Amino acid sequence: MRLGNLQLHNNLVLAPMAGITDYPFRQLAREMGCGLTFTEMVSAEGLLRKGESFLKMVEGEHPVSVQLFGSKPEVLAEAAAKAEAMGADAIDLNMGCPAQKVVKTGAGADLMRFPEKVEGLLIAMRKKVACPLTVKIRSGWDEEQINAVEISKLAEGCGVDAITVHPRTRAQSFRGRADWSVIAAVKRAVRIPVIGNGDVNTPVLIQKMIEETECDGVMIGRGALGNPWIFSEKHSGFPEKGPTISPEERKGMIHHHLSLIQSYYEERNLTPQIRKHLYWYTKGLPNCATFHSQLSSLKGKEKLLQAFHSYFDSIQRREPCQRSVPEEDRSITGWVEKAL
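The chain above was modelled as a monomer; its predicted structure follows.
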């Protein structure tokens, strides 16, 4: 898949998720075959104030897209230019975040209500950057204001290189089912690449979304939590519920991911990162409820790692487990909403 002047080696991309898609998570996704990773949503104003910390965020990482949020044309344009100068391969404008603290500033999903404002933002950003410029949108504000096609055509006219469509309204937040027909409608309306997003957590659903919507790429968010195998180049050969992962392979992947986390974060920030990823990697495994209850009460890296090894020792002799993420996992949704 090509986004402007950026050629990707495949059409699977990792969604930007606040508090989740940090550098270790993106590195793991790339190792598993992901074609493009997105940073966590970054405040345009914050980026202009804290350039050095941002540089660490994407240093030496390619290809990576920086997702910005904001509502002021001049600020977004300057932030986009700064991100590109610091090494970003693409810039994405967030027009889909439903969090109240973002929406109340006129950013995120609130932009879906004001096409003229969107046009001004995109024109200003397009003038400032030469790298691919993309947008991530929702279906609309609510069921009475479904305008994804209108916004997509406007974005194409402003020189945007691709559009990602999450077909839920702002009112839905992360609840309910994603309406893939909205993705198909956008694809029919524009000539630039369209990336579908929403309710994709198995290889079969990746293929189903492409076939039903004719989208050019698939963005995977919650379906990648505890499941980096979804980006594997061998995904087409996996059974319907996903790859069969042995306890040994799963334990090895967790250990690798935790090593990446420990190499990136300061000691005082490790515990919450380790806890949430251990939860996602072990969801659906034997006796996971007991393990998850234990995780919630443990404090400190060493105790969490000890519990991790003890748990896998207890299931080591069991048969390989299917990796399957429920279509609507409220616990996962809770983590995402809490991060926002």
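The chain has two domains: 2-235, 244-322.
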